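Appendix B, record 7
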Amino acid sequence: MKEEAIMTLRDQILQQALTLPFEDREYLAEQLGDSLQAGRFATEEIGKSWSQEIDQRIAAFDRSESTTIELDTAVQKMRDAVAAYQNHRAAQ
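Structure tokens (predicted):
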């Protein structure tokens, strides 16, 4: 019964939020997104460091200082690296 009440409350909140003007929905979406990001890193310092790293990589890409590869290629390279690591560990 309690879970049904929670679902109903969530549905009610969602329905109310969907009636808001675009700017208010955008604000809510940003706030909810920020709340989901909180605590994703062990410390706030680590989170800030990753944010800086991401910003630097985006800026380097925008300045054409870095290159990209296809997702399938990147995934295959990661799989190959993991397999090589596992084979190395198994051989020890």
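Remarks on this record: The chain has a mean pLDDT of 88. The chain has two domains: 1-38, 42-92.
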